Structures
1.
Amino acid sequence: DTAVSQTPKYLVTQMGNDKSIKCEQNLGHDTMYWYKQDSKKFLKIMFSYNNKELIINETVPNRFSPKSPDKAHLNLHINSLELGDSAVYFCASSPPGQGRAQHFGDGTRLSIL
Amino acid sequence: KNEVEQSPQNLTAQEGEFITINCSYSVGISALHWLQQHPGGGIVSLFMLSSGKKKHGRLIATINIQEKHSSLHITASHPRDSAVYICAPYGTASKLTFGTGTRLQVTL
């Protein structure tokens, strides 16, 4: 009974392609996040949604488009993939309220050839 | 300069040693996360704290909001504690800002 699940776990594709990463949480949390971890292992927030509404958008290129069909799902679509998009992408969720503990998915390793 | 500084960046300890990882931050925060990332890549939340001290098993986390400093202690360290430990304060708009992590290796 995985709490935050991401698919796929690995994604290898060519430059210029469009791809999606899916995230689902069964914790009943209101807030979901996408993070990017670069090759130096540095984590940075990309997006946050609260009850299907975008609340954080951290100057991410327009090629990245999050979509939240319901509060249990937050998918990430990436257009025209570039070499610099190679990274591990983590989805997370947290319950409502300030400063609540976040639960992370296992990550999706995206490799651009 | 990063808003969140951790020290040390790398730490090697022998099994049984007491370990301390420090985190200093420059942003105003409401709470602070300590996270653990295992070699396999998964991230686990260890603590969320906004004041004082929390203990879970062999792990202890402390925070001093006025001094903008937090520490993570591991007592009686074990090789299975080998991981990257990441400090992540909650700043404005419930946004986490991440430290660069401390890579801990515990040897037998």
2.
Amino acid sequence: DIQMTQSPSSLSASEGDRVTITCRASQFISRYLNWYQQKPGKAPKLLIYGASDLQSGVPSRFSGSGSGTDFTLTITSLQREDFATYYCQQSYTSPVTFGPGTKVDVK
Amino acid sequence: EVQLLESGGGLAQPGGSLRLSCAVSGFSFNTYAMNWVRQAPGKGLEWVSAITGSGHSTTYADSVKGRFTISRDNSKNTLYLQMNSLRAEDSAIYYCAKENKAVFGKGRFDQWGQGTLVTVSS
């Protein structure tokens, strides 16, 4: 199975901050990398697919980049509603696997 | 509006069984693969199983293979997960998630249900 790692595991930030989360795959996954946001008590929500494509309805302050094994999720100006946990997911091979998550909380 | 509504969770004894359902509306159910993803309390996301839109092909995580069975009734717009030989480590919130295409693999989970909690304990 492909192992996904994320860093940092958590971070504290303020509204307006630029936030960057990295995700690394243990093997080549091309651009089959998705990002999800999960708020407490809620289901995950797709933010970015194909490493850099923005899901419909997701604010443009979210962006993704990378290919191969190294990927990044960037939030350019953190808003109150963005405090959540973020997961990367590879869908290049079965089984699909998720990263352990990065919790973004209030500084 | 797309809706996915899970049900069937609850308390089960080790070695017992439960059947989860996911009723969907708002999209052409039979044209999309579907998945089950679980999340143990305070933990991350773990993919469990997937089924193609036609229902002809399925796949499972090693952790549940041989114990869980995914199925779908396209006439009822409903996805199922039959869980047998339950273990304590199966305790989790179980989400159904829609894939963006008819077959699984190289896709994304673009719609999720709200989840149903399964607790396995004596």
